[in-house]
Amino acid sequence: MNGYSDSHSEQAVRPSGGPSGGTEAGEVGVAQQAWTLLFSLLHTHMRNFPALAAEFELSPVQAHVLRQLGEEALAMSTLANYLSCDASNVTGLVDRLEARGLVERRSSEQDRRVKMLVLTEAGAALRGRLMARMFEPPEFVTAMPEEDQVALRDIMRRALKTQ
Amino acid sequence: MNGYSDSHSEQAVRPSGGPSGGTEAGEVGVAQQAWTLLFSLLHTHMRNFPALAAEFELSPVQAHVLRQLGEEALAMSTLANYLSCDASNVTGLVDRLEARGLVERRSSEQDRRVKMLVLTEAGAALRGRLMARMFEPPEFVTAMPEEDQVALRDIMRRALKTQ
DNA sequence: CTCAAAGGTTGATGGAGTCAATTGTTTATG
DNA sequence: CATAAACAATTGACTCCATCAACCTTTGAG
């Protein structure tokens, strides 16, 4: 194939490697092929996510936090769930964001145990710039023929809906 | 898993002002829509990559190293390039993998400055199991109708070829 | 031979992540 | 009602990841 495919070709697309699913064997085969290719492309692209976050002087995780904190106030524990990490980790994470004036801890009135996180004005502004940058499509998408882009978009819309 | 779908909708798919015709300005709009959706789905999936690596008692980065180290011996500096991180970081990384008997440093004979990294037998075995696990398609792929899976696979094949 | 450049290591420092233990606040139960 | 259990957040100890600056050895060019 091409120069890239070596890093995932030998163990990757092996149809029906085990008895794992109860579904039809053919479905799993195509799904695995699609996933393997998707995974490879994405992994190459995700390599520069740290650099992207660094454009805003954010760590990758801080960028992720800002992304989640967009719409509504979140409790610390909810954020820990989104990040699938320990609650104690979120404490330090928010400490640093708060020290930079991007985020604010606000005690909940219904339940005085929880602290709600809200973006400051500066935090919301930074998030806006970050999101615009994050959603710039990478080259492997812009280089596609438009019909592929449309098909990809529609497939992803359906996948999101049934999730 | 739940409560996710709202986190990417407000700044994300903005059709960039222009009317989306078949021209190049319209192409960018569709590309951005496709990318935004893809990005969101992928980011939710990537959240549990640490857990996946942990099934093999590996950190995410160690899993990435094992993946890269599949076929051929790599110099430390080459690995640092792949990981796009500092060379001094690789030292400790390889130290820990070597201490677990997964990787071996081997001095190059052409250039006695460089050290080549090779998988041990145990390392290769672990890598095999890891790769098989990594390429198991996630639910958002297996839940697709098969024609979407086929279309997705073909789109990704074309994208890889023209990369 | 001399000296600069390259490959790798070391030490200092800081963010990210976990676990165990603690404090303060609900909520459930006897 | 009183007390125990559950929960939210924090702290402290510890490990890994990551960077930078300084260093040593080897290489290669002049």
UniProtKB/TrEMBL annotation, chains A, B:
BP terms from Gene Ontology: response to stress
A GO molecular function held by the record: DNA binding
SUPFAM superfamilies: Winged helix' DNA-binding domain
Keywords per UniProt: DNA-binding, Transcription, Transcription regulation
One matching Pfam family: MarR
Matching PROSITE patterns: HTH_MARR_1, HTH_MARR_2
Region of interest: Disordered: 1-26
HTH marR-type domain span: 35-161
PANTHER family: MARR FAMILY REGULATORY PROTEIN, TRANSCRIPTIONAL REGULATOR, MARR FAMILY
Protein name, as recorded: MarR family transcriptional regulator
Organism: Corallococcus sicarius
